[in-house]
Design brief:
The complex is a heterodimer of chains A (268) and B (215). Chain A has 268 residues and is α+β, with helices and mostly antiparallel strands. Chain A has helices at residues 3-91, 97-125, 127-132, 134-147, 166-187, 230-241; strands at residues 152-158, 191-197, 203-210, 245-250, 256-263. Chain A folds into two domains: 50-125; 151-268, Histidine kinase-like ATPase, C-terminal domain (Heat Shock Protein 90). Chain B has one domain. Classes of the chains: A alpha+beta (268), B mainly alpha (215).
Chain lengths: 268, 215
Amino acid sequence: MQKIPFLLIIVVIGVLGISALVGILVLWVVVHHALERAHLQDLEAAKSNSKNELLSAQLELQEQTFQHVGREIHDNIGQYLSLVKLHLNRQIPELPPNAQGKIQYVLELVSNAIHDLRDLSKSLGGDIIREQGLCKAIEQQVALLESAKHYKVTFDMLGVYNYLEEEKEIILYRILQEAINNIIRHSRAKSIHICLDFTHFSSITMSIADDGAGFDTSRYSSHAPERIPGGIGNMSVRAKVINADFEIQSQPGEGTQVKIVVPYTPDI
Amino acid sequence: MNPPVLQISIWIMLPFSLLLPIIAALCCYRKYNPAYMRTFPIYCVVNALADVSSVTKFHTFPIIPIFTALETIYFAYFLTRVLRSRAVKVILWGLVVPFVIAVMYFSFSKDSYFTYYWLIISECLILIFPCCFYFIEALKRPKPFKPSKEPALWMVTGILYYFLLLLFTYLIADYLWANNEHYQAQEVYSVNNYAQFVSFSLYIYAMLCRRSLSY
Protein backbone atom coordinates (compact mmCIF):
# COMPACT_ATOMS: atom_id res chain seq x y z
CA MET A 1 0.00 0.00 0.00
CA GLN A 2 3.07 2.27 0.44
CA LYS A 3 3.46 2.17 -3.30
CA ILE A 4 0.22 4.01 -4.06
CA PRO A 5 1.00 7.51 -2.66
CA PHE A 6 4.45 7.24 -4.19
CA LEU A 7 2.92 6.40 -7.57
CA LEU A 8 0.39 9.16 -7.20
CA ILE A 9 3.25 11.63 -6.70
CA ILE A 10 4.99 10.23 -9.79
CA VAL A 11 1.81 10.53 -11.83
CA VAL A 12 1.17 14.11 -10.70
CA ILE A 13 4.78 15.12 -11.28
CA GLY A 14 4.80 13.36 -14.65
CA VAL A 15 1.59 14.99 -15.84
CA LEU A 16 2.67 18.42 -14.65
CA GLY A 17 6.16 17.90 -16.09
CA ILE A 18 4.87 16.90 -19.52
CA SER A 19 2.34 19.75 -19.51
CA ALA A 20 5.09 22.22 -18.59
CA LEU A 21 7.41 20.77 -21.23
CA VAL A 22 4.84 21.13 -24.01
CA GLY A 23 3.82 24.54 -22.67
CA ILE A 24 7.41 25.77 -22.68
CA LEU A 25 7.91 24.43 -26.20
CA VAL A 26 4.87 26.29 -27.51
CA LEU A 27 5.78 29.41 -25.56
CA TRP A 28 9.28 29.28 -27.01
CA VAL A 29 7.92 29.16 -30.56
CA VAL A 30 5.38 31.92 -29.84
CA VAL A 31 7.94 34.24 -28.20
CA HIS A 32 10.59 33.49 -30.84
CA HIS A 33 8.22 34.45 -33.65
CA ALA A 34 6.93 37.50 -31.79
CA LEU A 35 10.52 38.74 -31.37
CA GLU A 36 11.30 37.95 -35.01
CA ARG A 37 8.23 39.85 -36.13
CA ALA A 38 9.15 42.84 -33.97
CA HIS A 39 12.69 42.75 -35.38
CA LEU A 40 11.35 42.66 -38.95
CA GLN A 41 9.00 45.55 -38.22
CA ASP A 42 11.93 47.58 -36.87
CA LEU A 43 13.91 46.78 -40.00
CA GLU A 44 10.99 47.80 -42.21
CA ALA A 45 10.59 51.05 -40.29
CA ALA A 46 14.31 51.81 -40.58
CA LYS A 47 14.19 51.03 -44.30
CA SER A 48 11.19 53.29 -44.80
CA ASN A 49 12.86 56.07 -42.77
CA SER A 50 16.06 55.94 -44.78
CA LYS A 51 13.99 55.95 -47.99
CA ASN A 52 12.15 59.05 -46.78
CA GLU A 53 15.42 60.71 -45.80
CA LEU A 54 16.81 59.99 -49.26
CA LEU A 55 13.73 61.44 -50.94
CA SER A 56 13.92 64.45 -48.66
CA ALA A 57 17.57 65.01 -49.54
CA GLN A 58 16.78 64.71 -53.25
CA LEU A 59 14.00 67.27 -52.95
CA GLU A 60 16.22 69.62 -50.97
CA LEU A 61 18.85 69.39 -53.68
CA GLN A 62 16.21 70.08 -56.32
CA GLU A 63 14.97 73.03 -54.29
CA GLN A 64 18.51 74.47 -54.06
CA THR A 65 18.88 74.07 -57.83
CA PHE A 66 15.59 75.90 -58.36
CA GLN A 67 16.76 78.70 -56.08
CA HIS A 68 20.06 78.91 -57.93
CA VAL A 69 18.34 79.05 -61.33
CA GLY A 70 15.89 81.61 -59.94
CA ARG A 71 18.74 83.81 -58.69
CA GLU A 72 20.57 83.48 -62.01
CA ILE A 73 17.47 84.58 -63.90
CA HIS A 74 16.95 87.52 -61.58
CA ASP A 75 20.58 88.65 -61.30
CA ASN A 76 21.92 87.80 -64.72
CA ILE A 77 19.27 87.66 -67.43
CA GLY A 78 17.17 90.27 -65.59
CA GLN A 79 20.21 92.53 -65.45
CA TYR A 80 20.88 92.19 -69.18
CA LEU A 81 17.28 92.93 -70.02
CA SER A 82 17.33 96.01 -67.76
CA LEU A 83 20.46 97.20 -69.59
CA VAL A 84 18.73 96.59 -72.93
CA LYS A 85 15.81 98.68 -71.68
CA LEU A 86 18.14 101.47 -70.50
CA HIS A 87 20.02 101.61 -73.81
CA LEU A 88 16.83 101.64 -75.82
CA ASN A 89 15.42 104.44 -73.66
CA ARG A 90 18.59 106.48 -74.30
CA GLN A 91 18.34 105.85 -78.04
CA ILE A 92 14.71 106.91 -78.43
CA PRO A 93 15.23 110.75 -78.61
CA GLU A 94 17.92 110.29 -81.28
CA LEU A 95 15.71 108.19 -83.57
CA PRO A 96 13.37 109.43 -86.31
CA PRO A 97 9.72 109.65 -85.14
CA ASN A 98 8.53 106.61 -87.18
CA ALA A 99 11.20 104.38 -85.56
CA GLN A 100 10.41 105.67 -82.08
CA GLY A 101 7.03 103.95 -82.10
CA LYS A 102 8.62 100.62 -82.98
CA ILE A 103 11.25 100.98 -80.24
CA GLN A 104 8.51 101.90 -77.74
CA TYR A 105 6.84 98.61 -78.64
CA VAL A 106 10.13 96.70 -78.15
CA LEU A 107 10.58 98.48 -74.78
CA GLU A 108 7.11 97.31 -73.74
CA LEU A 109 8.01 93.73 -74.69
CA VAL A 110 11.25 93.92 -72.74
CA SER A 111 9.39 95.31 -69.71
CA ASN A 112 6.93 92.42 -69.90
CA ALA A 113 9.81 89.95 -70.19
CA ILE A 114 11.50 91.50 -67.10
CA HIS A 115 8.24 91.30 -65.17
CA ASP A 116 7.58 87.68 -66.17
CA LEU A 117 11.17 86.69 -65.42
CA ARG A 118 10.89 88.27 -61.97
CA ASP A 119 7.76 86.24 -61.32
CA LEU A 120 9.43 83.10 -62.63
CA SER A 121 12.48 83.77 -60.49
CA LYS A 122 10.32 84.21 -57.39
CA SER A 123 8.32 81.13 -58.21
CA LEU A 124 11.42 78.98 -58.77
CA GLY A 125 13.14 80.19 -55.67
CA GLY A 126 10.03 79.81 -53.53
CA ASP A 127 10.59 83.37 -52.29
CA ILE A 128 6.91 84.16 -52.37
CA ILE A 129 6.23 81.20 -50.05
CA ARG A 130 8.86 82.37 -47.59
CA GLU A 131 7.71 85.98 -47.74
CA GLN A 132 3.92 85.72 -48.03
CA GLY A 133 2.88 82.11 -47.50
CA LEU A 134 1.18 79.42 -49.54
CA CYS A 135 -2.12 81.21 -49.98
CA LYS A 136 -0.55 84.23 -51.67
CA ALA A 137 1.65 81.96 -53.78
CA ILE A 138 -1.43 80.12 -55.04
CA GLU A 139 -3.15 83.44 -55.77
CA GLN A 140 -0.11 84.47 -57.81
CA GLN A 141 -0.23 81.20 -59.75
CA VAL A 142 -3.94 81.76 -60.40
CA ALA A 143 -3.22 85.28 -61.66
CA LEU A 144 -0.48 83.94 -63.95
CA LEU A 145 -2.82 81.31 -65.37
CA GLU A 146 -5.64 83.80 -65.89
CA SER A 147 -3.31 86.18 -67.68
CA ALA A 148 -2.90 83.53 -70.38
CA LYS A 149 -6.69 83.95 -71.01
CA HIS A 150 -6.97 80.29 -71.87
CA TYR A 151 -8.43 78.90 -68.66
CA LYS A 152 -11.22 79.82 -66.31
CA VAL A 153 -9.41 79.53 -62.97
CA THR A 154 -11.08 79.58 -59.56
CA PHE A 155 -9.44 79.42 -56.16
CA ASP A 156 -11.36 78.69 -52.96
CA MET A 157 -9.85 79.11 -49.54
CA LEU A 158 -11.96 77.31 -46.92
CA GLY A 159 -11.46 78.06 -43.25
CA VAL A 160 -8.82 80.34 -41.77
CA TYR A 161 -5.37 80.19 -43.34
CA ASN A 162 -2.65 79.24 -40.93
CA TYR A 163 1.02 79.29 -41.86
CA LEU A 164 2.46 75.77 -42.11
CA GLU A 165 6.05 74.70 -41.77
CA GLU A 166 8.09 76.13 -44.65
CA GLU A 167 9.00 72.68 -45.98
CA LYS A 168 5.34 71.64 -46.14
CA GLU A 169 4.28 74.87 -47.85
CA ILE A 170 7.05 74.63 -50.45
CA ILE A 171 6.22 70.99 -51.20
CA LEU A 172 2.50 71.75 -51.51
CA TYR A 173 3.37 74.63 -53.82
CA ARG A 174 5.60 72.39 -55.97
CA ILE A 175 2.81 69.80 -56.18
CA LEU A 176 0.43 72.55 -57.28
CA GLN A 177 2.92 73.71 -59.94
CA GLU A 178 3.36 70.12 -61.16
CA ALA A 179 -0.41 69.60 -61.31
CA ILE A 180 -0.87 72.84 -63.27
CA ASN A 181 1.98 71.87 -65.57
CA ASN A 182 0.24 68.53 -66.23
CA ILE A 183 -3.04 70.31 -66.94
CA ILE A 184 -1.36 72.63 -69.43
CA ARG A 185 0.53 69.82 -71.15
CA HIS A 186 -2.00 66.99 -71.25
CA SER A 187 -5.53 67.83 -70.18
CA ARG A 188 -6.97 70.16 -72.86
CA ALA A 189 -9.04 71.61 -69.99
CA LYS A 190 -11.15 74.78 -70.11
CA SER A 191 -11.42 75.39 -66.39
CA ILE A 192 -9.27 74.74 -63.33
CA HIS A 193 -10.47 74.75 -59.75
CA ILE A 194 -8.01 74.99 -56.85
CA CYS A 195 -9.13 74.57 -53.27
CA LEU A 196 -7.23 74.89 -49.99
CA ASP A 197 -9.26 73.55 -47.11
CA PHE A 198 -8.34 74.46 -43.52
CA THR A 199 -11.68 73.43 -42.01
CA HIS A 200 -10.51 70.05 -40.68
CA PHE A 201 -8.93 69.92 -37.28
CA SER A 202 -6.01 67.59 -37.96
CA SER A 203 -5.38 67.95 -41.69
CA ILE A 204 -5.20 70.39 -44.59
CA THR A 205 -6.52 69.42 -47.98
CA MET A 206 -5.37 70.90 -51.23
CA SER A 207 -7.18 69.90 -54.39
CA ILE A 208 -6.64 70.81 -58.03
CA ALA A 209 -9.41 69.80 -60.40
CA ASP A 210 -9.85 70.27 -64.13
CA ASP A 211 -12.49 69.42 -66.71
CA GLY A 212 -10.02 68.06 -69.25
CA ALA A 213 -9.41 64.75 -71.01
CA GLY A 214 -8.75 62.70 -67.84
CA PHE A 215 -6.97 59.35 -67.91
CA ASP A 216 -7.14 55.79 -66.59
CA THR A 217 -5.70 55.86 -63.04
CA SER A 218 -5.59 52.05 -62.74
CA ARG A 219 -2.29 52.15 -64.67
CA TYR A 220 -0.58 53.52 -61.56
CA SER A 221 -2.65 52.08 -58.72
CA SER A 222 -0.25 49.20 -57.96
CA HIS A 223 2.98 51.23 -58.27
CA ALA A 224 5.09 52.51 -55.38
CA PRO A 225 5.25 56.36 -55.54
CA GLU A 226 8.91 56.41 -56.58
CA ARG A 227 8.20 54.01 -59.45
CA ILE A 228 5.41 56.09 -61.06
CA PRO A 229 6.85 57.86 -64.06
CA GLY A 230 6.52 61.57 -64.88
CA GLY A 231 4.60 64.31 -63.08
CA ILE A 232 2.33 62.01 -61.10
CA GLY A 233 5.37 60.25 -59.66
CA ASN A 234 6.94 63.61 -58.72
CA MET A 235 3.80 64.74 -56.92
CA SER A 236 3.41 61.39 -55.19
CA VAL A 237 7.03 61.34 -53.97
CA ARG A 238 6.79 64.90 -52.68
CA ALA A 239 3.57 64.07 -50.82
CA LYS A 240 5.28 61.06 -49.23
CA VAL A 241 8.10 63.25 -47.89
CA ILE A 242 5.63 65.31 -45.80
CA ASN A 243 3.57 62.18 -44.87
CA ALA A 244 0.63 63.43 -46.90
CA ASP A 245 -2.02 61.25 -48.53
CA PHE A 246 -1.92 61.71 -52.26
CA GLU A 247 -4.87 60.76 -54.41
CA ILE A 248 -5.78 61.16 -58.07
CA GLN A 249 -9.33 60.71 -59.24
CA SER A 250 -9.78 60.58 -62.96
CA GLN A 251 -11.70 58.85 -65.73
CA PRO A 252 -11.05 59.23 -69.45
CA GLY A 253 -13.16 62.17 -70.66
CA GLU A 254 -14.23 63.22 -67.17
CA GLY A 255 -11.41 65.46 -65.96
CA THR A 256 -8.92 64.93 -63.16
CA GLN A 257 -8.78 65.80 -59.49
CA VAL A 258 -5.52 65.76 -57.53
CA LYS A 259 -6.03 65.73 -53.78
CA ILE A 260 -3.36 66.02 -51.08
CA VAL A 261 -4.22 65.64 -47.42
CA VAL A 262 -1.44 66.86 -45.12
CA PRO A 263 -1.41 65.99 -41.41
CA TYR A 264 -1.53 69.21 -39.46
CA THR A 265 -1.59 70.27 -35.83
CA PRO A 266 -2.92 73.82 -35.45
CA ASP A 267 -1.35 76.12 -32.87
CA ILE A 268 -3.89 76.53 -30.09
CA MET B 1 -17.08 -1.16 -12.16
CA ASN B 2 -14.79 1.70 -13.22
CA PRO B 3 -13.14 3.77 -10.48
CA PRO B 4 -14.90 7.15 -9.92
CA VAL B 5 -11.82 9.10 -11.10
CA LEU B 6 -11.94 7.29 -14.44
CA GLN B 7 -15.71 7.71 -14.68
CA ILE B 8 -15.48 11.48 -14.10
CA SER B 9 -12.69 11.82 -16.66
CA ILE B 10 -14.82 9.98 -19.24
CA TRP B 11 -17.76 12.32 -18.68
CA ILE B 12 -15.48 15.35 -19.03
CA MET B 13 -13.85 14.08 -22.21
CA LEU B 14 -16.88 12.54 -23.95
CA PRO B 15 -18.93 15.72 -24.63
CA PHE B 16 -15.84 17.30 -26.19
CA SER B 17 -15.26 14.20 -28.27
CA LEU B 18 -18.85 14.40 -29.58
CA LEU B 19 -18.67 18.16 -30.08
CA LEU B 20 -15.42 17.99 -32.02
CA PRO B 21 -16.84 16.54 -35.31
CA ILE B 22 -19.56 19.23 -35.34
CA ILE B 23 -17.10 22.08 -34.80
CA ALA B 24 -14.69 20.51 -37.31
CA ALA B 25 -17.44 20.22 -39.94
CA LEU B 26 -18.38 23.86 -39.38
CA CYS B 27 -14.85 25.28 -39.28
CA CYS B 28 -12.54 23.16 -41.43
CA TYR B 29 -14.20 23.86 -44.78
CA ARG B 30 -14.07 27.65 -44.56
CA LYS B 31 -12.09 29.15 -47.43
CA TYR B 32 -9.40 30.65 -45.19
CA ASN B 33 -8.61 27.34 -43.50
CA PRO B 34 -5.59 25.56 -44.90
CA ALA B 35 -6.01 22.47 -47.08
CA TYR B 36 -4.46 20.17 -44.48
CA MET B 37 -7.46 20.82 -42.18
CA ARG B 38 -10.00 19.49 -44.73
CA THR B 39 -9.62 15.85 -43.67
CA PHE B 40 -9.74 16.56 -39.94
CA PRO B 41 -13.56 16.21 -39.55
CA ILE B 42 -13.31 12.60 -40.80
CA TYR B 43 -10.81 11.78 -38.06
CA CYS B 44 -13.06 13.51 -35.50
CA VAL B 45 -16.04 11.34 -36.49
CA VAL B 46 -14.00 8.13 -36.23
CA ASN B 47 -12.55 9.28 -32.90
CA ALA B 48 -16.02 10.08 -31.50
CA LEU B 49 -17.30 6.63 -32.57
CA ALA B 50 -14.32 4.97 -30.85
CA ASP B 51 -14.91 6.96 -27.65
CA VAL B 52 -18.63 6.16 -27.62
CA SER B 53 -17.92 2.47 -28.23
CA SER B 54 -15.51 2.42 -25.29
CA VAL B 55 -18.22 3.81 -22.98
CA THR B 56 -21.18 1.76 -24.23
CA LYS B 57 -19.49 -1.62 -23.66
CA PHE B 58 -19.53 -2.19 -27.39
CA HIS B 59 -15.83 -1.96 -26.83
CA THR B 60 -14.42 -5.21 -28.16
CA PHE B 61 -10.74 -5.83 -28.66
CA PRO B 62 -10.37 -5.58 -32.50
CA ILE B 63 -12.11 -2.19 -32.66
CA ILE B 64 -9.46 -0.39 -30.62
CA PRO B 65 -6.39 -1.65 -32.53
CA ILE B 66 -8.10 -0.87 -35.81
CA PHE B 67 -8.93 2.62 -34.54
CA THR B 68 -5.33 2.98 -33.32
CA ALA B 69 -4.09 2.11 -36.82
CA LEU B 70 -6.50 4.59 -38.45
CA GLU B 71 -5.52 7.28 -35.93
CA THR B 72 -1.82 6.72 -36.61
CA ILE B 73 -2.38 6.84 -40.38
CA TYR B 74 -4.38 10.07 -40.07
CA PHE B 75 -1.87 11.84 -37.82
CA ALA B 76 1.03 10.62 -39.99
CA TYR B 77 -0.80 12.06 -43.02
CA PHE B 78 -1.42 15.32 -41.18
CA LEU B 79 2.22 15.63 -40.07
CA THR B 80 3.35 14.84 -43.63
CA ARG B 81 1.31 17.84 -44.79
CA VAL B 82 2.74 20.26 -42.23
CA LEU B 83 6.37 19.10 -42.13
CA ARG B 84 8.93 20.30 -44.65
CA SER B 85 11.74 17.79 -44.18
CA ARG B 86 11.50 15.04 -46.76
CA ALA B 87 13.75 12.77 -44.68
CA VAL B 88 11.44 12.98 -41.66
CA LYS B 89 8.41 12.24 -43.83
CA VAL B 90 10.13 9.17 -45.29
CA ILE B 91 11.16 7.93 -41.82
CA LEU B 92 7.65 8.56 -40.53
CA TRP B 93 5.97 6.49 -43.23
CA GLY B 94 8.76 3.93 -42.98
CA LEU B 95 7.62 3.39 -39.38
CA VAL B 96 3.86 3.76 -39.94
CA VAL B 97 3.55 1.13 -42.69
CA PRO B 98 5.12 -1.76 -40.68
CA PHE B 99 3.17 -0.56 -37.65
CA VAL B 100 -0.17 -0.79 -39.47
CA ILE B 101 0.74 -4.25 -40.85
CA ALA B 102 1.63 -5.35 -37.30
CA VAL B 103 -1.68 -3.96 -35.99
CA MET B 104 -3.63 -5.92 -38.61
CA TYR B 105 -1.65 -9.07 -37.82
CA PHE B 106 -1.96 -8.81 -34.03
CA SER B 107 -5.55 -7.50 -33.96
CA PHE B 108 -6.91 -10.99 -33.44
CA SER B 109 -4.07 -12.21 -31.28
CA LYS B 110 -5.01 -14.08 -28.13
CA ASP B 111 -2.83 -12.10 -25.75
CA SER B 112 -4.83 -8.98 -26.35
CA TYR B 113 -3.54 -6.81 -23.48
CA PHE B 114 0.11 -7.49 -24.29
CA THR B 115 -0.45 -6.65 -27.97
CA TYR B 116 -2.51 -3.57 -27.23
CA TYR B 117 0.10 -2.26 -24.79
CA TRP B 118 2.87 -2.46 -27.38
CA LEU B 119 0.67 -0.99 -30.08
CA ILE B 120 -0.01 2.10 -28.01
CA ILE B 121 3.63 2.50 -26.97
CA SER B 122 4.75 2.17 -30.61
CA GLU B 123 2.07 4.61 -31.82
CA CYS B 124 3.21 7.18 -29.25
CA LEU B 125 6.87 6.84 -30.19
CA ILE B 126 6.13 6.98 -33.92
CA LEU B 127 4.10 10.20 -33.61
CA ILE B 128 6.09 12.04 -30.93
CA PHE B 129 9.28 12.31 -32.97
CA PRO B 130 7.79 14.14 -36.03
CA CYS B 131 5.87 16.45 -33.66
CA CYS B 132 9.16 17.44 -31.98
CA PHE B 133 10.68 17.93 -35.42
CA TYR B 134 7.81 20.25 -36.34
CA PHE B 135 8.82 22.54 -33.44
CA ILE B 136 12.43 22.55 -34.64
CA GLU B 137 11.22 23.52 -38.12
CA ALA B 138 8.90 26.17 -36.65
CA LEU B 139 11.85 27.76 -34.85
CA LYS B 140 13.99 27.69 -38.00
CA ARG B 141 11.44 29.23 -40.33
CA PRO B 142 12.95 32.11 -42.27
CA LYS B 143 9.75 34.16 -42.14
CA PRO B 144 8.11 34.75 -38.76
CA PHE B 145 4.46 33.76 -38.44
CA LYS B 146 1.61 34.75 -36.13
CA PRO B 147 0.78 31.76 -33.90
CA SER B 148 -2.86 32.83 -33.78
CA LYS B 149 -3.01 32.35 -37.55
CA GLU B 150 -1.15 29.06 -37.72
CA PRO B 151 -3.51 26.09 -37.16
CA ALA B 152 -0.71 23.53 -37.60
CA LEU B 153 1.12 24.80 -34.48
CA TRP B 154 -1.89 24.15 -32.23
CA MET B 155 -2.79 20.86 -33.91
CA VAL B 156 0.76 19.55 -33.47
CA THR B 157 0.85 20.81 -29.88
CA GLY B 158 -2.38 18.89 -29.20
CA ILE B 159 -1.00 15.73 -30.81
CA LEU B 160 2.34 15.98 -29.00
CA TYR B 161 0.71 16.67 -25.62
CA TYR B 162 -1.74 13.80 -25.97
CA PHE B 163 0.79 11.20 -27.08
CA LEU B 164 3.41 12.25 -24.52
CA LEU B 165 0.88 11.83 -21.72
CA LEU B 166 -0.49 8.63 -23.24
CA LEU B 167 3.01 7.16 -23.31
CA PHE B 168 3.63 8.17 -19.70
CA THR B 169 0.20 6.91 -18.56
CA TYR B 170 0.61 3.57 -20.26
CA LEU B 171 4.04 3.00 -18.77
CA ILE B 172 2.70 3.64 -15.24
CA ALA B 173 -0.57 1.76 -15.82
CA ASP B 174 1.33 -1.23 -17.15
CA TYR B 175 3.56 -1.27 -14.09
CA LEU B 176 0.48 -1.28 -11.85
CA TRP B 177 -1.27 -3.88 -14.02
CA ALA B 178 1.78 -6.14 -13.83
CA ASN B 179 1.65 -5.81 -10.00
CA ASN B 180 -2.04 -6.77 -9.98
CA GLU B 181 -3.10 -3.25 -8.97
CA HIS B 182 -5.83 -3.24 -11.64
CA TYR B 183 -8.03 -0.69 -9.90
CA GLN B 184 -5.18 1.82 -9.52
CA ALA B 185 -4.08 1.14 -13.10
CA GLN B 186 -7.53 2.22 -14.28
CA GLU B 187 -7.33 5.31 -12.08
CA VAL B 188 -4.02 6.26 -13.64
CA TYR B 189 -5.55 5.63 -17.06
CA SER B 190 -7.99 8.49 -16.39
CA VAL B 191 -5.07 10.86 -17.11
CA ASN B 192 -5.46 9.81 -20.75
CA ASN B 193 -8.99 11.25 -20.80
CA TYR B 194 -7.88 14.55 -19.30
CA ALA B 195 -5.06 14.71 -21.88
CA GLN B 196 -7.65 14.09 -24.61
CA PHE B 197 -9.74 16.94 -23.21
CA VAL B 198 -6.76 19.33 -23.40
CA SER B 199 -5.76 18.21 -26.89
CA PHE B 200 -9.38 18.55 -28.13
CA SER B 201 -9.35 22.12 -26.83
CA LEU B 202 -6.15 22.77 -28.76
CA TYR B 203 -7.68 21.22 -31.93
CA ILE B 204 -10.69 23.52 -31.55
CA TYR B 205 -8.39 26.52 -31.19
CA ALA B 206 -6.53 25.38 -34.31
CA MET B 207 -9.81 25.15 -36.24
CA LEU B 208 -10.69 28.70 -35.23
CA CYS B 209 -7.43 30.15 -36.58
CA ARG B 210 -8.51 32.34 -39.45
CA ARG B 211 -5.83 32.54 -42.07
CA SER B 212 -4.80 29.80 -44.43
CA LEU B 213 -1.12 29.18 -44.90
CA SER B 214 0.56 27.36 -47.71
CA TYR B 215 3.08 25.87 -45.33
